[in-house]
Design goal:
This protein has about 325 residues and is an alpha+beta fold. About 30% of the residues lie in helices and about 25% in strands. It folds into two domains: about 110 residues, Yope Regulator, Chain: A (2-Layer Sandwich), CATH 3.30.1460; about 180 residues, no CATH class. Strand 1 and strand 2 form a beta hairpin.
Length: about 325
């Protein structure tokens, strides 16, 4: 049986909309709904006239109608209507992350600005149907990066700086760079052999003075205390971000990662069963661009963890201690 969606228990009206208000901390009332054709709707009620703001910032999105309509004297509705029922899982993901973002808006104008910015970020997903599900190894990789991001958030006085340090989505050579430290994040499944794949000749070479390889072993243990799915971890990190700019940057980087909160990512649930950190220095076994023979590019290779055991360091070193 498929998971229920917010529109399952909303009937098709004979006129106008059939709606159900969404509980939450939003500054404006929000609703799930259906129209007379049965299309799934997301509706925001906005007091005041926001026509000028809407005309300035609105964008068209393949597969979704976005419209600002007068609802009553002195109020307007932003209405998102899904074209095709087959895309309902994507549309629900858009709406759920929009609801989370709206919790940080303070009034109708800022709520509309948040919604329109959010829709623009989703345009890349919904235009041309280019979205592909993350492969299992990509799910684990993103889970590991977000695990380290949470650790950085705990270490940094500025949440914005912690999110800015996450450069993996930006195709940086290392996943995190902060101060004069670079950290490459890797994940292993609970049953995987003890080797990690280095996917390029640049991952273990850095202009920073301090370079670390940090490895998380992720075990799929749904019943274990603290086990989280990728969707749950993303939601948890988002809840830790109390700065609007940090939230916007976090969402943008998730979009680059091709992450959409689909029900598919409600499983598996992971626990971090082991964390290991290695200082990449001296004769650490690696292939780097500066030492490759002429004509050889795009290398990838596996490193045995037993071969780098002598480079293992205390995990606290990664945050700045020696």
């Amino acid at each position: 049986m498929s998971d229920p969606s917010p529109w399952d228990d909303i009937g098709v009206p004979g006129s106008d909309f059939q709606v159900r208000q969404i509980a939450g901390k939003m500054a404006v009332p929000c609703f799930w709904g259906r129209n007379t054709s049965g299309a799934c709707l997301f509706i925001m009620e906005l007091s005041g006239d926001h026509s000028s703001q809407y005309r300035k910032d609105a964008t068209t999105v393949h597969g979704i109608d976005v419209d600002l309509r007068d609802s009553q004297i002195g109020a307007q509705r932003l209405v998102l209507a899904l074209h095709r029922e087959v895309d309902r899982d994507l549309f629900e993901g858009l709406c759920q992350t929009l609801l989370a973002a709206l919790e940080h808006a303070t009034d109708p104008s800022s709520s509309l600005a948040v919604a329109l910015a959010h829709i623009r970020r989703w345009k890349a997903f919904l235009s041309g149907r280019n979205l592909q599900h993350l492969f299992p190894e990509e799910v684990r990789g993103l889970f590991a990066e977000l695990t380290f991001l949470l650790e950085l958030i705990e270490q940094y006085s500025s949440i914005g700086e912690a999110v800015a340090a996450w450069l993996g989505p930006e195709r940086s050579h290392q996943d995190f760079i902060y101060g004069n430290t670079a950290v490459e994040i890797k994940s292993l499944s609970g049953t995987e052999r003890s080797t990690v794949r280095i996917s390029s000749e640049d991952q273990l070479e850095s202009l920073n003075d301090r370079l670390f390889l940090r490895i998380y072993r992720l075990s799929s243990l749904a019943e274990a205390a603290g086990a989280r799915s990728l969707n749950e971890l993303v939601a948890y990190v988002r809840d830790e971000l109390n700065e609007a700019e940090a939230i916007d940057e976090f969402e943008r980087k998730l979009a680059i990662h091709r992450y959409v909160p689909l029900p598919l990512y409600d499983e598996p649930k992971f626990v971090v069963s082991e964390t290991r950190s290695f200082r990449v220095q001296g004769d650490f076994p690696r292939l780097v661009r500066s030492l490759l023979p002429a004509g050889i590019t795009k290398t990838s290779y596996d490193i045995k963890l037993e071969a780098i055991a002598s480079y293992e360091c205390d995990g606290e070193c990664v945050y700045g201690g020696d």
